[in-house]
Each structure stands twice: as structure tokens, then as C-alpha cells.
Design a protein that fits this description.
Number of strands: 11
Strand content: over 45%
Distance between the termini: 48 Å
Largest sheet: 5 strands, antiparallel
Structural class: mainly beta
Number of helices: 1
Radius of gyration: 16 Å
Strand order of the largest sheet: 4-5-11-7-8
Length: about 150
């Protein structure tokens, strides 16, 4: 049986899947803006690094088709010094007509993982996914910019 956690968000324990019908409405219903994760596409200051520079957090939405064992550049500003946190928030798998959330892993043959890195001031991700391809992917980033 599925559990309705909040408006627009359903969790199914049997296969550990999350379904969100409307991301913006779901974020509003959970009041995520009041947590440390602000879920904004604009850079927001969330702290200070040891050198006194601000730490920023932002959401990146990638419309690229992401395929298994391939690297993709997801930012282009060229000003990222350090990446502190990168999380896969969600991706759509058109072959299954389904959304997948977080570091998804069900058994050995069904998974979505990202490996982030900073290259020339931009953030790239290396995608490991048993899914054919991912689209409309959303990533949460915590960064220190120059």
C-alpha cells in the first residue's frame, strides 16, 4: 500500500519508490524552504566556509538526456571553487513513465547514482543508471564560488 506523505507526494514501501505529481506544490506542502535545503534555482547563502567566503545552495534542473556511464556538465558559470554536496533529487524515465527520486537503488540491477566533480570551475556529474535514460533531472548543490 502507498502512503500519502503530503500533498502531491506518495511513498510505496514495497519497492521504495517516491512519486511526486507536482514538484513545486510538493515542496510548498512540505515547507522545505524553512529547512537548510532551500530548493531554489537561485543561489542562496547557507553558511560560511573556513576562509570566510559564503557557501551557496541551489537546484539545477537538467533537460539533457542522461545515459548510463556518461559524464555531463550541469553548470556553465565557471566560478565553482568547491563542491560540498550534490544530490540527485529526481529524474523521469520515459520508458517507464515514472519519476525516480534520490540515490535510487532496488537490488543489484535497478539503480540511479551520480558521481559529481568540479572541472574548470563547472560541476559535472557522471551518471550510473540501470535505466535507459533519464530526463528532467534535478540536482541539489552546495558550493563555494569564486
Amino acid at each position: 500500500a502507498s502512503t500519502l506523505l503530503a500533498s502531491n507526494i506518495t511513498y510505496t514501501p514495497k519497492d521504495s519508490t517516491w512519486k511526486v505529481n507536482n514538484v513545486e506544490a510538493a515542496i510548498d506542502s512540505l515547507k522545505l524552504s524553512k529547512t537548510s535545503d532551500n530548493y531554489s534555482t537561485e543561489e542562496k547563502v547557507v553558511g560560511t566556509w573556513i576562509d570566510g567566503k559564503p557557501l551557496y545552495q541551489k537546484i539545477i534542473i537538467s533537460n539533457q538526456e542522461l545515459k548510463h556511464a556518461t559524464s555531463y556538465q550541469i553548470t556553465s558559470e565557471g566560478n565553482v571553487e568547491t563542491l560540498f554536496k550534490a544530490e540527485h533529487i529526481r529524474s523521469y524515465v520515459s520508458k517507464e513513465s515514472a519519476w525516480y527520486y534520490g540515490e535510487y537503488n532496488v537490488g543489484g540491477n535497478d539503480y540511479i547514482h551520480i558521481l559529481p566533480s568540479v572541472q574548470n570551475g563547472n560541476i559535472s556529474i557522471y551518471v550510473l543508471s540501470a535505466k535507459q535514460s533519464l530526463t528532467n533531472s534535478m540536482f541539489l548543490l552546495n558550493i563555494n564560488s569564486s
